[in-house]
Each structure stands twice: as C-alpha cells, then as structure tokens.
Amino acid sequence: MGLFILRRLGVMILTALCLTFIVFWLTNLTPNLEKLAKTQGNFRMSDDAVTSYLTNRGYKQALPVKYGQWLGVLPGYEIADADGKVRRRCDDGRTFCGVLQGEWGESTVFKEDVSKIISKRLGLTAKLMFWVMMVMVPGALVIGVLAGMREGSRTDRTLSTVSIISTATPEYVSGVVFISLFATGTFGMNWFKGTATSAMDNANFWNFFLPVMTISLYGMGYIARMTRASMTEVMTAQYIRTARLKGVAFRTIVLRHALRNALIAPFTVIMLQFPWLLNGVVIVETLFNYKGFGWTLVQAASNNDIELLLGVSVVSVFVVLVTQLISDIGYVFLNPRIRIS
User: Fold this and answer.
1) Angstrom distance (rounded) from CA 191 to CA 209
2) How far, CA to CA in Å, does 236 sit from each of 73, 229, 240, 256?
3) pLDDT truncated to tens, each residue of the chain (341 aa)?
C-alpha cells in the first residue's frame, strides 16, 4: 500500500505540473496579455505602450521561464524600465517567490492577495459542500439501497422514477422553482429566504436550506441510481442466494453481506462529487447570490484576472487529484478482495 501511494503521489505531481502548465499557457496567450495591459492601463494604449507595459512586468519572457518563476523554482525577474526603475517579481528581496513559497500574486480585479481571496471563497464553498454532502449522500444511499433490495417491486419503480426526475432537472430549474414556491410568497408560502448572501456570515436553516436542497437533489438522483444498480447486482450473487437458502434473515443479509460490496461503485461517484461541488455549482451560487469558489472562478475568467485564475486552477487540480487518490485507497478497505498489483 505504501509503495502504491508513493507511485500515485508521483503521478499526481506530474499531472498537476502538466495541467497547471496548460492553464498557464492559455492564460498567457498574447490576446489575454494585451487585454490585461489595456485593462490595467488605458484602453487607448498604443501597441508600443502595451509592449512596454508587458515587458516591464516580465510577461514578455519565454513561457517556461515565466512558468518557473510563477511556480517558484526559478529566480524572480529584475527588469529596468525606460525611466531606470527596476521592477522585481520578489519585492521583499527574496530570490524565489512563487506558488511553492506561498506567493500567489495579486488579483487585478479585487486588488487583494490571491491566497486570501481563495481561502475566503474556498471556506464559503466548503461550508456549502459540507451540508450538501450531509443531505445528499445519506439520502441517495437510502433510496438506492431500498430500490435495489427488491428489484422490480413497486418501491423500486417509484424510487427509480424519483431518482431519474431529480437527475434530469437542472439546478437552475429546481432553484427557480424552489424560490417561487417557498421564498417569494407567490403561492402563499414565504418560508425561506430566496438569497443566501446572509448565509456567508451566518448560515441558518432559513437562508441556507434552498441552495443546499437545490444542489442535493440534482446529485442525489445519480448516486441513488448507481447504488440501486450495484445493490441489484449484489443481491443476485451466489453467496447471497446461499445465505437466503440457509435461512439468514433478509435484514442481516442486506446489512452484513450485501451493503459493503454494493457501496464500492457508489463510493467512486461520491468522491467525484467533491470536484463537481467545488467548481460546478456556479449556477446555484449565482442564483442565490452566494459568493463562493465557483463564483470566484467566473469572476476571474470573465475579467481576465490571470493571477486569480491561476490560483483557482491550482486548487481545482489539487482537489481532483486528491479525491481520486482517496477513491483508489478506499477500494481496498471496502473490498479486501481487491489487490494492488
């Protein structure tokens, strides 16, 4: 297991370097850099002025050099402009100042350190993710297990239909429906707040219920269907039939023998929800005005905020790779018959 984890960590580091380099290359394309210069300077800047702006700030260096400086494995630049002023990447006198040293740059839109912005927005999304998982995962597993215990029964057909409907309903549809039904008083019901802005500082049942349920219902159906399919397959296995012929109670068969093996496939799907919740809830965060990590990603991309976009990308890559590693390790503990070759 130790050697397996070390190999996977090596692959993770290589994958992270490749993905971040691709994002770095895309964000540092010439049109993006020219747009950045004109946004920070003047939209009527001449081509020479744009070139001078980019040169004095290290953007005109070779791409591998810029990537190494941003990563923190190459010394920061020192460039003198036409007035003799020396611009340094490392203002505090250090030789290396990149991501590995905790220097993520400054957002050109929010005028704040990228690390502070990401930590704040990531904390808000983590709070949303926690409550979504607390509602979504237990509910989906219960629905999937109940549906798969007796394939073809009325319970199975009913719960499967509910799962399909929830998965087929996008968040922007269910969110609008929830707001119309329970927040605007259109039908005489004004139980919850239609915005989650106040939940950023003080989350409670009334201002956080609608966004949590909007996300939970969409993901719950997919996990429930995977659980149902896995449970149905396990319940038809030979060892389950043998246990039933021996007179073992049906409840004992489900809880002790079937459930653990049936959770292997849903476990993978559950782990994949973390990257989705991190970046894929942009619509919900926008709909309920909840300024989390997904909202930050949209702001960085739409405003050509290169440093912030790179920081968001690093966190996203890290979360995806870590959840995949946890998913692979979880296989072994859920089913000891799985061996690492």
Assistant:
1) 10
2) 56, 11, 7, 15
3) 677 778 888 888 999 999 999 999 999 999 989 888 888 877 788 888 888 888 888 888 999 999 999 999 999 888 877 677 787 888 777 888 889 988 898 898 888 999 999 999 999 999 999 999 999 999 999 999 888 888 888 989 999 999 999 988 888 898 888 888 888 766 656 788 878 888 888 888 888 999 999 999 988 988 999 889 888 888 888 888 888 888 888 888 888 878 877 887 788 788 888 888 887 788 888 889 899 898 888 888 888 889 999 999 899 888 888 888 887 777 767 666 665 55
Query: What's the chain's length in residues?
Result: 341
CATH class of 115-334: mainly alpha
Domain ranges of the chain: 2-101, 115-334
Q: What is the CA radius of gyration of the chain?
A: 25
Burial of 201 (0-12, 13-18, 19+ CB in 10 A): exposed
Q: Which residues, other chains included, contact 15 with Cβ-Cβ below 8 Å and sequence gap of 6+?
A: 317, 321
What are residue 80's DSSP bridge partners? 86
Whether the CB-CB separation of 144 and 228 falls below 8 Å is answered with yes
For 264-279, b where at least 16 C-beta lie within 10 A, e where not — what string? Answer: ebbbbbbbbbbbbbbb
Contact 61, 92 (CB under 8 A): no
* H runs (alpha helix) in 57-113: 63-71
